[in-house]
Amino acid sequence: MNNKEGFTIVELTVSITLILLLAVFLVPNLLKMGDNSKEKMYDSKIQMALSGAYKYGIDNVDELSNECTDVTIGTLINLEYISGDDDSGYKLMDPVDGGNMNNIVICVYYEKNEVRAKVKK
Question: Is the Cβ–Cβ distance between 65 and 95 less than 8 Å?
């Protein structure tokens, strides 16, 4: 009987190849999951801003028409319809690029007896 300890070259090669294949397929998927979660957080913040714009529209319905009344996220924060998420409480931070979302314009209007809000492109 042969009582050698350790691995053969073939066993090591197969093991290293499997580890590298796993890394090649897993690492990009893990990075993509991080990007997807940031995009979902961004979408969630936009929905929060739209909800705040809707509340703003309800409070100011007499001033609305079927045309856009432009309101920025910064204005909604200053008027306390939504809250900021930075240290000062006056900025909404973009989770994708770390920038400031305060200058995003939301169109608030009155149509078919209902207040509506949408992000202005």
Answer: no
Integer Cα distance of 112 and 115 in angstroms: 8
The candidate with the shortest Cα–Cα distance to 68, out of 96, 103, 42, 107, is 107
Closest CA to 54 of 113, 120, 110, 112: 110
Predicted TM-score (pTM) of the model is 0.72
d(Cα 45, Cα 51) in Å, to the nearest integer?
A: 10
* Residue 109 located in a structural domain: yes
What secondary structure letter does DSSP report for 65? -
**Mean pLDDT across 38-66:** 93
Taking only the tens place, the pLDDT of each residue in 95-108 is: 989 899 999 999 99
pLDDT at 102: 94
What H or E segment, with its residue span, contains residue 72? strand 69-72
The answer to whether residue 21 is domain-embedded is no
Residue 78 lies in a domain: yes
What does the alpha-carbon distance between residue 67 and residue 59 come to, in Å, rounded to a whole number? 17
Domain of residue 51, residue span? 35-119
